[in-house]
Amino acid sequence: xxxxxxxxxxxxxxxxxxxxxxxxxxxxxxxxxxxxxxxxxxxxxxxxxxxxxxxxxxxxxxxxxxxxxxxxxxxxxxxxxxxxxxxxxxxxxxxxxxxxxxxxxxxxxxxxxxxxxxxxxxxxxxxxxxxxxxxxxxxxxxxxxxxxxxxxxxxxxxxxxxxxxxxxxxxxxxxxxxxxxxxxxxxxxxxxxxxxxxxxxxxxxxxxxxxxxxxxxxxxxxxxxxxxxxxxxxxxxxxxxxxxxxxxxxxxxxxxxxxxxxxxxxxxxxxxxxxxxxxxxxxxxxxxxxxxxxxxxxxxxxxxxxxxxxxxxxxxxxxxxxxxxxxxxxxxxxxxxxxxxxxxxxxxxxxxxxxxxxxxxxxxxxxxxxxxxxxxxxxxxxxxxxxxxxxxxxxxxxxxxxxxxxxxxxxxxxxxxxxxxxxxxxxxxx
Length: 430
Description:
This protein has 430 residues and is α/β, with parallel strands linked by helices. It has two domains: 26-282 and 325-429, TIM Barrel (Alpha-Beta Barrel), CATH 3.20.20; 283-323. It has helices at 3-18, 21-38, 48-56, 80-85, 108-125, 136-144, 164-172, 203-215, 226-235, 259-267, 278-281, 283-302, 305-318, 326-340, 367-376, 381-406, 417-429; strands spanning 41-46, 88-94, 130-132, 148-155, 175-179, 218-220, 241-242, 271-274, 345-347. Strands 1, 2, 3, 4, 5 and 6 form a six-stranded parallel β-sheet that branches. Strands 7-8-9 form a three-stranded parallel β-sheet. The chain is globular and about 60 Å long.
């Protein structure tokens, strides 16, 4: 049964039970709208800034966020009209820059500054709709004016080039979380999708987490290895976030969060912002994607380019991708709730940083559909308010409170990576 058939069947059953299909649908829409009037729906991770870099070299005039970007070649997931239809109250614009091999390169610092500049110019250019937010209270104030609170999230610790000084300066420029790693490991932290080198965080990696706590920058554990997750949760004095991850028990992708970590996140008042990327939220799709990549690698190894392309097309025709829907995403929310509790859930779709999204969650206009599905599953209006934004606002408030206290007790750390490494070697030699 495909998505449309399942949706029609569910609507029919609910309508029969409640004796009024249109009234029930209207009631769901009204409940979601009422929640989102008072609680800003906040997405933890949107990659539209990288689309500006990749498509138009950060020239704002060449990609108009205020227009309907479904009409361009290779449509984006994000534009202002669809953000409005999706009732979005806030989002973290990701200032992602690629990592070039293990450890990254020094030029990542300038590259991430360029992306922060792009986000600020984007906000200023669309100041009737967007406004920069730097803390939890400003998100609420901006939402109350009808604008979309716009925050900056740094994706990948390679962007600080192993420097606590760079970390501080990027915080001052507006970054309010940093994902400790991206797809490759660092000299101080292991990634989920690279070779294990440190079994988690090194001593310098722990200092990065502690300095983020002192600054008030949220520690984001999406993309890191399971051991890095555990080390960061052990070290951090503030709640942590996963800006765009889902549940490993439901879909066994290395980018997802295992149950023991989910339980720790709940215990330590953190949050997992559920991702929509299809191979992260559907086990059949994950297996399909792995088989596709293995087959493609084999063909590239054994055939010339044109022959490999033709044979890959034949394989794909015989092995169609399984359907992934908003029901799969809701299943992850159900699981996280069962392990970590309702206070540990948020939304981090990863729009414009992934292939087409699940059926029913194709772009930023679709957030209400997921919230309606949760209401159908028995979640209360208070529950969907927490998932939409209240949980994230509470984490931000806690992080800010910890930082305010630590700044009265601690000076900025001036440790250097090579000094910490030498100290570790000396201690081990004793």
